[in-house]
Amino acid sequence: MGLCLPCLGESEPPSPDPEEKRAKLAEAAERRQKEAASRGILDAQSVEQKRKRKEKMEKQITTSGPPPEGGLRWTVS
To answer: What predicted TM-score, i.e. pTM, was given to this entire model?
Structure first.
């Protein structure tokens, strides 16, 4: 009852190569990160384009130099 005779003679299954295991873990982590970043977003490309446009505008503002005397800069986010 309950004896597994073929298993008695076998050794442990070979463990995966550490480099291969590390690569698979990294790939899985990247996949989870992408899924978490796009959760609830219907059009991920549109969001990415908007983010790039915003970064470009912020870069232009920082490189344009100091604002004129007494001028206030208003931004809407």
So the answer is: 0.38
Q: What's the pLDDT band for 74 if we cut at 50, 70, 90?
A: confident
Determine the Cα–Cα distance for residues 22 and 32; give it in Å rounded to an integer.
15
User: Helix and strand tally (H, E) in the chain?
Assistant: 3, 0
CA distances from 43 to 48, 50, 58, 63 (A): 9, 11, 23, 31
The one-letter code for the residue type at 37 is A
CA 2 to chain CA centroid, nearest Å = 47
Query: Given the structure tokens 């931004």, which residue do they identify?
Result: 75
